[in-house]
């Protein structure tokens, strides 16, 4: 309960920070809103309508009330409420990020555990090198490489159809597909972006799991487990995994900002209409209300993830329950 | 992390670290010398048709030889890549150093003073950590003009929190070591004790984090430049060079490939060095 109150307070501070940043920025928001050819009198009138002529304290109070009631303002560009603009983009990003996190952890854990079991072998070394390189590579550059191979070269090398993947958007334009074929089309469009984000994430998770597992292998309780006659399989599946649960939960919350960052680039490269691309396009268009709405949404996601990780910790690690 | 660095037997650097260090030294020399010795201005565009999109190791119609080929405007990619490398290295190192210095200072003050100061620094760090760093960077460049100065300021303002937390923890643990009251008893002022005795003994993890932060800063700068929100063309950055080859993936893949390889190699080298430094400090404790 106290953690929830702290998170709520933190979120209010995040919102206030976005307000402060917006008002600290040079330039008058009214000038962005006015059509070309507007007069100085128009500007004065618009400032009056938007409340920009009131004192900062009054503006803050009003903004605070509106934000709490879920009104994030209207987009400068198409005058749609920011709430609706974000409502369109958020599901796309949640699906992309959620699927990628899931695959990152599943694949990364499997690889990391396998590496720790075969420590020092050639396989272990090459997987370490691969994961370090993946983590050091920019998502957008890998994305361009994937598009070059699986979209362009795949057709000139006449690869089988399932290896020729679309590079843009969520659906084949104008195809008007229904039901299962629509779903299949969506999956085909998702393969490259999800695989890319998952591969980068899995690299990080694998390194983390390998280190954690190697530390754990030298622990007393591992020796005890073996001494009492537990087989290797049971030692791994039961004792080792149980002890990795808590650090992995923490890593999951920590991995979220990275996934958000990755999705900004991946959505831009693959033209996915998600939050990351929305943020970049609204920055280029100087659409401040949308930029701030995106920042507020990302902040909420990170805070909720941390709160959830904290709440689940007693389940993952019974030692903290007392 | 002890006060007695002299008692530490330094492990000799491993092969990976030696290769990484050599690569970074080579890169530094190359980014200084190559653009300075180039026969043509790397920003100049002329006779585009004769020079554009020459493949690596190819010659253009004027007889000019291009190690990594040319871009769509006929500019030599290798020279531009090295010019971009100057910027990436400076932004990466300076951005990470500024963030490290700010974090060390704030963390040390917070851990040393305790009370309200500690609580405000911690609250500020928690606040900034609640937003992904890339989002903060994007908001920063959205509100101010894109450019090197903006990127450096925003990198420092969004990168200090982790380091401040590390240093704060170290300072709190160092604060009660016998040499601190000893220095105070000898008449040293609070600022002198903090700067001369506490921070030097608490700074190890901050140095590791700052080193590891260089690669991250380079990645963030190039990412912003790729999105068109960082270094603005015609000034080259690895990020905007990769972006410049986006529609040439089939015709001239080297335009995006070469700067990307340079970026990955540089980030990899700083990561290997940072990891090595961390292992050495961990072995010390």
Structure explained in plain terms:
- The complex is a heterodimer of chains A (322) and B (285).
- With 322 residues, chain A is mostly helical.
- Chain A has twelve helices and no strands.
- The model of chain A has no long low-confidence stretch (mean pLDDT 83).
- With 285 residues, chain B is mostly helical.
- In chain B, 69% of the residues lie in helices and 1% in strands.
- Chain B is built from twelve helices and two strands; from the N terminus they run H-H-E-E-H-H-H-H-H-H-H-H-H-H.
- The N and C termini of chain B lie close together (5 Å).
DSSP strand tally of chain A: 0
Helical/strand content category of chain B: mainly alpha
- Count up the helices of chain A: 12
Shape of chain B: elongated
Outline type of chain A: globular
Unreliable spans of chain A: none
From the N-terminal CA to the C-terminal CA of chain A, the straight-line distance is 16 Å
Calculate the mean pLDDT score of chain B and round it: 84
**DSSP E strands of chain B, number:** 2
Approximate strand percentage of chain A: under 5%
State the order of secondary-structure elements of chain B, H for helix, E for strand: HHEEHHHHHHHHHH
Mean pLDDT of chain A: 83
* DSSP helical segment count of chain B: 12
Strand content of chain B is under 5%
Which class do the helix and strand fractions of chain A yield?
mainly alpha
Short note summarizing the structure:
The complex is a heterodimer of chains A (322) and B (285). Chain A is built from twelve helices and no strands.
């Amino acid at each position: 309960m106290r953690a929830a109150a702290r998170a709520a307070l933190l979120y209010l501070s995040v919102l206030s920070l976005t307000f402060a940043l917006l008002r600290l920025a040079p330039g008058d928001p009214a000038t962005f809103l006015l059509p070309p050819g507007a007069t100085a009198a128009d500007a004065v009138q618009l400032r009056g309508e938007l409340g920009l002529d009131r004192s900062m304290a009054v503006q803050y109070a009003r903004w605070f009330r509106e934000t709490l009631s879920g009104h994030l303002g209207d987009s400068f560009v198409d005058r749609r409420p920011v709430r609706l603009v974000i409502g369109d983009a958020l599901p796309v990003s949640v699906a992309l990020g959620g699927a990628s996190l899931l695959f990152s952890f599943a694949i990364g854990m499997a690889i990391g555990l396998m590496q720790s079991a075969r420590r020092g072998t050639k396989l272990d070394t090459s997987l370490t090198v691969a994961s370090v390189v993946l983590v050091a590579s920019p998502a957008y550059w890998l994305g361009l490489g994937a598009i070059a191979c699986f979209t362009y070269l795949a057709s000139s090398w006449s690869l089988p159809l399932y290896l020729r993947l679309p590079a843009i958007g969520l659906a084949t334009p104008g195809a008007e597909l229904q039901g299962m074929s629509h779903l299949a089309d969506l999956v085909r469009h998702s393969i490259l972006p999800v695989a890319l984000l998952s591969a980068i994430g899995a690299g990080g998770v694998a390194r983390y799991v390998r280190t954690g597992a190697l530390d754990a292998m030298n622990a007393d309780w591992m020796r005890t487990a073996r001494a009492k006659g537990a087989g290797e399989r049971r030692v791994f599946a039961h004792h080792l995994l149980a002890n990795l649960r808590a650090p992995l939960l923490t890593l999951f919350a920590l991995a979220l900002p990275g996934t958000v960052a990755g999705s900004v680039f991946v959505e831009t490269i693959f033209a996915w209409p998600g939050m990351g691309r929305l943020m970049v396009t609204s920055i280029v268009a100087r659409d401040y209300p949308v930029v701030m709405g995106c920042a507020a949404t990302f902040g909420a996601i990170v805070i909720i993830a941390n709160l959830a990780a904290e709440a689940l910790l007693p389940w993952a690690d019974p030692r903290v329950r007392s | 992390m002890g006060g007695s660095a002299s008692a530490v037997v330094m492990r000799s650097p491993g092969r990976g670290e030696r290769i990484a260090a050599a690569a970074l030294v080579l890169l530094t020399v190359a980014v200084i010398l190559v653009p300075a010795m180039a026969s043509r201005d790397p920003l100049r565009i002329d006779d585009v048709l004769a020079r554009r999109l020459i493949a690596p190791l190819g010659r253009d119609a004027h007889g000019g030889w291009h190690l990594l080929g040319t871009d769509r405007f006929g500019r030599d990619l290798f020279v531009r890549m090295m010019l971009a490398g100057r910027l990436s290295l400076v932004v990466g190192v300076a951005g990470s150093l500024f963030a490290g210095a700010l974090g060390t200072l704030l963390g040390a003050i917070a851990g040393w003073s305790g009370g309200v100061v500690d609580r405000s620094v911690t609250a500020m760090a928690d606040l900034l950590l609640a937003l992904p760093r890339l989002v903060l960077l994007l908001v920063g460049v959205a509100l101010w003009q894109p450019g090197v100065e903006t990127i450096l300021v925003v990198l420092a303002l969004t990168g200090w929190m982790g380091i401040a937390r590390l240093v704060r923890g170290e300072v709190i643990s160092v604060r009660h070591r016998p040499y601190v009251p000893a220095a105070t008893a000898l008449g040293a002022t609070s600022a002198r004790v903090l700067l001369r005795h506490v921070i030097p003994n608490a700074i190890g993890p901050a140095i590791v984090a700052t080193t590891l932060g260089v690669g991250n800063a380079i990645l963030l700068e190039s990412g912003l430049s790729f999105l068109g929100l960082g270094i603005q063309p015609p000034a080259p950055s690895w990020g905007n060079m990769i972006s410049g080859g986006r529609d040439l993936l089939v015709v001239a893949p080297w335009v995006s490939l070469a700067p990307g390889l340079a970026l990955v190699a540089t980030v990899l080298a700083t990561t290997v060095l940072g990891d090595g430094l961390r292992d050495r400090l961990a072995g010390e404790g």
